[in-house]
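ok so I'm stuck.
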Amino acid sequence: MNQDNKQEMFPLVDEEGNIIGAATRGECHNGSKLLHPVVHLHVFNSKGELYLQKRPVWKDIQPGKWDTAVGGHVDLGESVEQALRREVREELGITDFNPQQVTHYVFESTRERELVFTYKTVYDGAIQPSDELDGGRFWSVDEIRANLGKQVFTPNFEGEVEKVLPLG
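replied:
not stuck anymore, here's the structure
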């Protein structure tokens, strides 16, 4: 069975994104609340639907839930832009896209604190989810709205979706 590499090294950052140290994935996800950077990409098609990935049951955070199309950690020695392009290629097989930065914010759960850099793009090409994911699909705004608050989506996605989608 797949599992996350708990020895993978992440940069530790302050709330402005300045690197102040380093720690392993295991140390960042054990409740220590060590602030580490991540990237998210919301992928829309030209019909306004939003692609979501299904998190595999073996993930250490939010297994089995629907989440942002791409989400991943910034590796030690990597820029946010480099991490975004690497994660999009690894998770969805997309190499040609034009990301627009939406926001950045601190997300905190009982297990971790992340400095999240959020982007969006419109993409109508082929999407090939990797084995890091349990598949994915495009969702309409109405489908997303109908499932909010029902434990279908990750808390990260639910907190972020209003910044990229008109849900009103």
